[in-house]
């Protein structure tokens, strides 16, 4: 039997996720005097904050297991300041490894995403409860919706722009129900909990929401103890288990789900989904396979990198049409959050390299015009790699294509990190502003724009 990836005594201190710009930083910093190229738009007022993995000890078994660290840029009247903070959960305070956190839903790395809902900033990771932080990124405490949330919370909830509801799910790899659906009203009250039947436990990282439905992705990264004995990992890609999409009314239950078969694949992140008559349109970053060699095998070459695809679920015919939109290797897709679950004309992604030895961030950001089927490319420059692009509308009532695209970038030769501000309507031109961080910002996961 191979060593388990969860055995912290066998950490590979030369692993890819501990090298270069994946490596953690040690300091929590406050800075108000930042180096800026260009001019910050005066209408940009709010907080850009990104979460990511930053192991406190300097080492972790896996990229996914580092302590959560928030990096925030606060914009006020043409000025900007920076600060970063650990999310100080028991996982941080007690310097736990992932095995030690199992069984304690509060012991979250809190390292994957951060959102704001009902006045609360929530730092998220999919195997534990969310943690509340304040606007200054200081940790407040675990958030379990007044004791009503008894399981974990996905790192990819959805906030409905029409109702203000927060919709999310949790999955279990150990016991039934393997999936549970939750609905929180605009006031932040948990009002619905629905167990969902699955034939086996799967790793469901993300999902889809429309105006009236949720769409679960039952894809074949499965939990298998036989696989654990072979590879040391309890997770693996098993295409023979099949793949399907489950459509359920947002206020529905397990009995209301309709399942639709699709080709085996994996999707870490959808772009968006919406209804079109009696059809549901989904844009997703689909990859042919994932974690073929187990949980450590995040990157396995070209087939484990996503491309943008369009899935059309015909609710009348009971079938799904699958269409590849583009062949550019990409992931971390985002849309205008005001269009979440509604018709989307534009979307943004970051590229990933396909010929590297390990997971490698790309050198371009992509903008998709989904109506005219066009792709625009923002070249980050020589020896510069990017991060997730976040769209910020210029005003509350500006058009879907009228705003700024914010994203972190890393200058490899200078070992410097910067936040880019790109005009969404002039996407291929240089950024209107580049804001240099006072310290390197490691590659991370997801972030949000929170208006002032």
UniProtKB/TrEMBL annotation:
Q: Which GO terms describe its molecular function?
A: carotenoid dioxygenase activity; metal ion binding
Q: Which GO terms describe its biological process?
A: carotene catabolic process
Query: What Pfam family is a match for this entry?
Result: RPE65
Q: Which UniProt keywords apply?
A: Iron, Metal-binding, Oxidoreductase
Q: Which cofactor does it need?
A: Fe(2+)
Q: Which family does it belong to?
A: Belongs to the carotenoid oxygenase family.
| Name under which the protein is recorded | Dioxygenase
